[in-house]
Amino acid sequence: MFENLTSKIESVFSFFNKSTRLEEKHVDEGLRKIRQALLESDVALSVAKDFVNQVRPKAIGQEVLKSVTPGQFLVKIVFDELVRVLGSSNSDINLNVVPPVKIMMIGLQGSGKTTTSAKVAKYLEKNFKKKIMLVSLDVYRPAAQQQLEILSKQHSLYSLPIVEGQLPTDITQRSLSAASLSGSDVIIFDTAGRTQIDTVMMNELVSLKKIINPVEILLVADSLTGQDAVNIATEFKKAVDLTGVILTRVDGDGKGGAALSMRSVTGCPIKFLGVGEKVEDIEVFYPERIANRILGMGDIVSLVEKVSEDLKKEEIEELEDSLKKGQFTFNDYLKQIRQMKKIGGMGKVLGMIPGISKIKKQLDEADIDENILNQQEAVILSMTPKERENPKIIDGSRKKRIAHGAGTEIALVNKLLKQHKMMTNMMKKMSQGGGRNFGGPDGIPPELFNNLK
Q: Residue 253 is part of a domain; what is its CATH number?
C-alpha cells in the first residue's frame, strides 16, 4: 500500500546524503517534496501541512553526527513525526470490564464489516482465550445474517441463532440474555450498513448504542477509498462516539493516505488492519511498525511474529539445534516453505524486509513466481526420507525419479539442491560465529539509530 510514498520519501533522503549539514534551503526543498508525496498519496491537506511544519524546526541547522549522513539524520526526524501522526502507540481493545464486553461494528456496506467481525472474534479467541458470541443485526441486506452464521461455523465460532422476522432491537435484547446463559466473555454486534451515510442508518445506530451500551464502537473502513474513508469516519464520529477504526484491504494497491490521515483528522486510533481475505488476515496496528514500512525499513518484528505464531516450542528448539550444528535438512526446508506460504507468500515476506524497496525495480524485473513454493514443496515430497536427510545421495537417476514424481523438470530439482547447499553452507558459517551485523535501517548502525531516538 505504501510503496509509492516510500519510493518518493527515499529519494528525498538521498537528496541530503552529499551534505554535511542540514541547510535551510535544502531542508525546505526536501520538505516540499515530502509534502507533495503525502498529498499524492491522498493524505489530507491539513495533515500534510502540519507534518511539514513539525519537521522543519527540528531539521534546520542541526549539526549532523560524523557517523551518520544528513539523509540518515532526517530519517529519524521524519520517523518520529510519522509515529506521532499515526498515533504514537497501539490502542488495544478494552477487555478490562465486567463481561460480557460489548463491541459494535459499524460502517458502510461493502467495507468488509461482516468478515472483519469474524476476524476480530478469532483474534480475541486465539490471543486472549475469550469465549465470543457473534450477532448479526443486519436484517436488510439479503443473506447478511446467513453470511455471519456460515463464517462462524467455518471457524468454530459461536453465533446467535437466526430468528426470521426479528428487528435489530429485538435481536439485541435476545443476544444479551443468551450471553448470560452461555457465559460469553465478548459479544460482537455486526450492524447493518448502507451504500452511503443516511439519517435512517445513523438513527438506528444511536438507538442500538443506547440498548447495547458498548465498550467499543469500531468503524470498519475500506482503505482503498483513500480520503473518503477519513470523511466517512468523521461523519460516523458525529453520530456515535467511535472508539477506534479498522482499515480493510490494506493489502491492496491503495495510496495509504487513509492510514496517515485517520488519527489526526478524527482523533480515533486505528486498532487493526485487514490484510487479506482469510479470517487470520488481521494485524494489530502498531504506529512504529507502519512508520518503518513507509520509510522502507521493513517490519521485521511483525515478520518474526508471523513466522513464530504457529510454530510449536518443540519445532523451534529442534530448528535451533540443527542451526547450532550447522545442519539444514530438506525436512527443515519443507517447514520453512510451508510457513512462508502460510504468511502469504514471498511477496508478503519481501515487503517486510528492511531496504527491499530500494531493489523493487530489480525484483519486478525478476518476475518472481509465487508458484515456485508449491513446486519446491512437490519436489521435496517426492524425495524419500533418506534423501531429505542426506541430499548428497541424490544422483542422476534419483533426480529423474524425483522430477517425475513432482511433475516437473530435472532443472528445478537441480536448482533446489543448489539452493539447499548454499543455505547449509550459510548455516555452518553462522554456527561457527561467522555472522556479522549488517547495520540498521537505511544503513544506519543500530546503536546510532537507537541513540538518535
A: 3.40.50.300
